[in-house]
Design goal:
two-stranded antiparallel sheet; nine-stranded mixed β-sheet; alpha/beta; 20% strand
């Protein structure tokens, strides 16, 4: 399979130029995309990232947004510069170690009802990050953001929310939503549903996007074995009074104004939308 004729890549940077360079080098090493198919968007980094990346990433289009409008804002700007059939959206703290992305592209090629693919995120030591999720109930949010999620019976509920068992047989499976750290979406679908919602500065924009993919009649699927390394740093769990914690809570409230977030029973792909 010739990957390079299929994929445009968008990477949004904010003060992480070294991570971006590592990510781009992995795209080159594994021929995921040609230089003219990679878009790096700098969200007005105050550390000189834009000038550094433009100087050092020869052949790569590097864009300056002029202001830090958030992750979704940067992605939408980058997508305007793309041409390929599929969009690969990557966090800068990711990189490829093989060409197993072919497994995900094969699913998209063979299953026209699949609109968005979540990659198999792994830590640098090879452990899986379990990047698929069910939609939230309020109790699920509490389990994720407090110690009670580590204990019975809430641990079992949290494992179900994180779809731990769905990865076991190694076959592609439907997910309510997938982490936006690394995913592939059909470009025509992305445009048809209005792209990323940039009212989310950070966090929950991936949940929102997947909800709209499902509402459009397309499926969200995870592909075990389509590996992407992620230097995972869950800053949203650093506490509700930190900047990241406050931003995450704000995004949760934004999401709850658009979608159903019941107290106990999480909605499914058919009931997530408000009536």
């Amino acid at each position: 399979m010739d990957i390079q004729n299929k994929v445009s890549v968008v990477i949004v940077n904010y003060c992480t130029p070294e991570l971006v360079k590592t990510c781009v080098q992995s795209l080159r090493d594994w021929q995921v995309a040609g230089d003219d198919q990679i878009i790096v968007v700098d969200n007005a980094s105050p550390d000189g990232s834009f000038a550094q990346l433009r100087a050092e990433l020869c052949g790569i289009k590097v864009l300056d947004t002029g202001r830090n409008g958030g992750a979704s804002y940067g992605v939408n700007i980058g997508v305007k510069e793309t041409l390929e059939q599929y969009l690969l959206i990557l966090n800068p703290d990711t990189y490829f170690i093989d060409d197993t992305i072919k497994l995900a592209l094969q699913v998209l090629d063979e299953r026209p009802d699949v609109g968005l693919i979540g990659l198999d995120l792994i830590y640098p030591d090879g452990r899986r990050q379990f990047s698929a999720r069910r939609f939230y109930s309020i109790l699920d949010i509490i389990c994720r953001r407090s110690p009670i999620g580590h204990y019975w019976p809430m641990k079992g509920r949290l494992d179900k929310h994180m779809m731990i068992s769905s990865w076991e047989d190694g076959k592609p499976f439907d997910a309510d939503w997938v982490m936006g750290t690394g995913f592939i979406i059909r470009r025509d679908l992305f445009q048809r549903i209005g792209g990323m919602d940039d009212s989310y500065f950070l966090y929950m924009e991936d949940v929102d996007l997947c909800a709209r993919v499902w509402s459009s009649g397309s499926r969200v699927v995870c592909v075990p074995g389509a590996r992407l390394v992620h230097h995972h740093q869950r800053s949203s769990a650093s506490g509700p009074f930190s900047w990241a914690g406050r931003t995450h809570l704000k995004s949760l409230f934004t999401f709850a104004r658009k979608y159903r977030v019941p107290l106990l029973v999480p909605p499914d792909v058919n009931t997530i939308r408000r009536a």
